[in-house]
Amino acid sequence: MPGEANTLITGRLAREARSRNGVSRVRSRVAGGRGAAAGARDDGRMPPAPDVYLHGHHDSVLRSHQWRTAENSAGYLLARLPATARVLDVGCGPGTITADLSARVPGGRVVGVDRAGDVLALARREAARQGRRNAAFGAADVYRLPFGDGAFDVVHAHQVLQHLTDPAGALAEMRRVCRAGGLVAARDSDYGGMFWFPGDPELEEWRDLYRRVARALGGEPDAGRRMLSWARVAGFAAVEASGSAWCYTGPADRAWWGGLWAQRLTESPFGDRAVEHGLATRADLRRLADAWLRWAAGDDGWFLIPHGEILCRVQA
Description:
The protein is 40% helix and 20% strand. The protein has helices at residues 11-21, 59-67, 70-73, 75-78, 96-103, 117-130, 167-176, 201-216, 227-233, 250-267, 269-276, 282-297, and strands at 86-90, 109-114, 135-139, 152-158, 178-189, 195-197, 238-249, 302-313.
């Protein structure tokens, strides 16, 4: 339930996490970095102001997130996922990838965490719908994860690093809670590498606006190309970097993707933040939304989103 969002793992799930998988003790009120598990990092400093998630959780955003699966969003990891793995899914959102991962580790356990407590109710509902009894969810800050050192075999994050002011710092914290020999896996899109057909100057304007808003909030929209570099800055010596893409074309895909972006521009927190930072007017946002609908209506419409991926081996 939403009221339980500030407790990382509650009741039976907490006991099972401690006894079956060695996940360290957790305390309530971990969101925003307050309260940490035994062994979690505590450097005595006040936690920094939280990063701002550009998109928010408007319905147009959640519909996109709920389309994601382990196969279409974490394919680079799946062959490396033992059936008994203890997995942490950072920035789990509505939990569709998390639930899929739990199905692939029937002898293990998956914990999904997100800083936004309201979205965790959807994640719990999705896991229950799929009957994933080895999945648990709770609120946490990626910079101060409430777990002991080496608590997990695999730590995963999808579309998270691009929204952070310190992606290398987040990777270092993910490494801390991953055991020696385990894997830290991350995948992020790259807005500068997106391309589409037919060309449209207003879609170019949309991309430019997105990148400016993201950077105004401290994020990096061209994250995909930087994944390997961030991993190296975080101290990983053994990194496998790769890439993959999503492609939207055909009437159903175009209507879905174009419609989502038209709504994000005019109804979601993205548009609000563009206006608040003086980067667009409401009239600009409506005009760019129309460009997305125009693209969606064209029979020749095609849109590709490239992603950078990293598999980082944790060394002793």
